Amino acid sequence: MSKKISIAIDAMGGDNSPDKTIEGVKIFIDKNKTSDDFIINIFGKEDLIIEKLKKYKINSSAINIIDSQKVVSDEETPMTAVKNSKNTSMWNCIQHQLEGKSDISLSAGNTGVLLVISRMILKMMNEVSKPALAGLWPNKNGMNVVLDLGANIECNEQNLVDFAELGSALFKSLFPNDKPKVSLLNVGSEEIKGTEMLKAASKKLRDLSSEDNFIYKGYIEGNNIMSGNSNVIITDGFTGNIALKTAEGTAKFITKNLKESLTTISLIFSFFSLKKFKDKLDPRKYNGAIFLGLNGPVVKSHGGIDSMGFYYSINLCYKIVKGNLMTEIKKNLKHSKSG
Amino acid sequence: MSKKISIAIDAMGGDNSPDKTIEGVKIFIDKNKTSDDFIINIFGKEDLIIEKLKKYKINSSAINIIDSQKVVSDEETPMTAVKNSKNTSMWNCIQHQLEGKSDISLSAGNTGVLLVISRMILKMMNEVSKPALAGLWPNKNGMNVVLDLGANIECNEQNLVDFAELGSALFKSLFPNDKPKVSLLNVGSEEIKGTEMLKAASKKLRDLSSEDNFIYKGYIEGNNIMSGNSNVIITDGFTGNIALKTAEGTAKFITKNLKESLTTISLIFSFFSLKKFKDKLDPRKYNGAIFLGLNGPVVKSHGGIDSMGFYYSINLCYKIVKGNLMTEIKKNLKHSKSG
Q: Which of A175, A214, A329, B334 could join A180 via S-S bond, C-beta 3.0 to 4.6 A?
């Protein structure tokens, strides 16, 4: 029997927790009734968690509760996190993972604290210059991996090359039947465009481009992120964070305007087709930013997401481990260093 | 009688020109039948322009043709532009403006060449550290001015402060009944977020904030660009270009998916409400990037836009001059230097 996929979940982080996190676990377990290849380690106030497990009628041998009475507060800053967050539900997740008892950690809590303590406990991989936050972003043909989304607001060319190796490995673990196609986000597609740093990164990526690891497709502009020609989009954390949030804001603005424009009668007649449209673009499906470059993956769920969104991030954790992310990362980084 | 608003139009730039540019002029003249406060100077191949004026049945004393047989090619790069673009229709527009015969120039041609020759002929204002490209971007309550959209991929704090003064002046000239509210685009809204350069720019803007020029509202994140709380969004040209194009790409992706989701029957029933929705978000209404910081404004129309979109950029030119942009800019820069 092969080793089970072991997921550490911080049940206490984010709005409306642990209700939303435990209901998310319930959805995951219901959707995976026939498989017994996973264990879910739930960290938080034991009595409260038992109460919620009862409330949502979860009775599964795949669940393991680890009592953590302390919780990271929303007001905690990364500066004070190390001192104040010891033995919180979030901290204990990462510690459990460090000890090899979980393969991945998931929290909807304070992002800054999660990044700081993950990095402190799990430590950076030797081969990586900086860790990065990666996210999923829909495109015409399926899904993009985009990084960095904000872990590093200033980057050099080697950071971007590392992000390409990390992002391609993530893409391969999530979509094993597809090939990673890397592009660098830039203000134009011609070779002469962009900063000297981007040009140097582009040259390195062109040299590293190979069928086995990733195909480098050159620069990509903001309006082509969703074209589907590339599926691993690399940028610094400042630009990536602003691009992602601008896309979110634009999507919200458009759908809100659409709703306001539709009259009751047209709403009735377009209900089912609009439902199909909403389902495809449902932001809950893209919930979960993946912290890459440490000695183990950590997933940050959106704090304000509901239980269905939290389910999608549990499922993301499951797929990442099943797809052997860490093996793929090591393979890619070896290629990068010997390339 | 006060001086007429004089607009120089490069009729030859962009796809499907001069048909689109001349038809755009036709729409502008039809919509302004009752006013006689403008002159349109059309630059291009005279015989061709006369032919198109006939084709679109334009017979107006407000039109003045200036023969320019040479045209800037799409393949021209900014490097070779100065040598090769002399006496083209684009060049002659800017030259006409320098000589005080036009107040503003408009072209749908090669962007790089337009920026280079505008800067060379009109020259930078003494008080400005770098010129910038500004654009209009819809928000919940009306319209944002956003800059820089790509003229400067690397900026320092003084550049951003200058952009705030230029952008606020543009906002005041376009929307005289509204107050400019400036925000700096950043990865978070807290004081501690962002690069040292952004923090320094933020401090300067806070010191310059005043009822007369602009109110500084602090940092803004990408998802709040369209919230309407600010209306002058300041960023470097790299980030601004990527944010704008990402928003365009997202809008296109969503409307395309919406169209594909709607069945024929729901399309019929939602036709009118969808038309209202499309009208409000019609990208042609935001056509035209304004080059600010030179001794005179220059407007770049999207090359691929149609005649209606080109009309909107002519109308933008008209409103900019009518709103006394250059006077507003000088007032703001004086404030900035003495502040």
A: A214
